[in-house]
Amino acid sequence: MKLTGRVALVTGAGTGMGLEAAKQFTERGGRVLMVARQAERLRAEAERLPGAVALPCDISDADDVRRLLDAVVADHPELDTVLLNAGVTHTYRLFGHEDAYAHADEEMHVNYLSAVRLIHALVPIIEPRTEPALIVTTSGTAFAPDLTNPTYSATKAALHSLTQAVRLQLERNGSAVKVFEFMAPLVDSPFASGVISDQKVSPEAAVADLFAGLERDERELRVGGSEAVYQALRRSSDAAVRTLNAATGG
Q1: What radius of gyration do the chain's Cα atoms show?
Q2: Cα–Cα distance for residue pair 6/237, rounded to 1 Å
Q3: What is the 3-state secondary structure (H, E, C) of 45-64?
Q4: Measured by CB atoms within 10 angstroms of the end CB, which terminus of the chain is less buried, N or C?
Q5: Cα distances (angstroms) measured from residue 120 to each of 24, 69, 76, 108, 194
Q6: 195 near 248, Cβ under 8 Å?
Q7: Mean pLDDT of 189-211
Q8: For residue 178, what are the contacts with CB-CB under 8 A and spacing of at least 6?
Q9: What are the beta bridge partners of residue 201?
């Protein structure tokens, strides 16, 4: 997949890997539509990147998403790449004092249900472009749960399944859209601040690995610890769970 000169919509673009992906798309001569909830911070980051456009949006809110899609159709019909990277997590343990249902409700709406909505809305927009691409960020928790982020892990397993279904269905439809899944490693960013681990990698390194994999046309990109969990899963599900939780302190 050629990365130079793309017009990419990136969710979760205000911080961490999403922001770094926006930077690396821009460095390759691309133009980025940056999507995140925190409008002031998002606009400040977009001003630092040539040609970047800030599109504040709560992707779990149907009205906000409708306004986002209207703006994309009206002002950015050349969009050819979508990176769904936004997410939320709650670091806690089951059967403690936390409200697991409330955490799961928020995580499922942001991490999974918003992806269902956005994929169905954005794929028809990018489909006519040259070499259109949909990139979905999951993690090694798609293969095994992290006990310190248990309901978040379940949303990533759901998103992994959805991404596989989307890829196969588009293939059977004869669509030109390439579907990539980025199973991100544990990244040293505000998102993972609640996880104490010596195995975190920088956002810069994680996104560099993502872009390298995209250029090789690898449809399921397992990076760092995610690859280790996958290899453990080939031995047994128990091995995968133990491998992942050894890395996260779970």
Answers
A1: 17
A2: 39
A3: HHHCCCCCEEEECCCCCHHH
A4: N
A5: 26, 11, 18, 17, 32
A6: yes
A7: 74
A8: 1, 131, 132, 133, 134, 217, 219
A9: 187
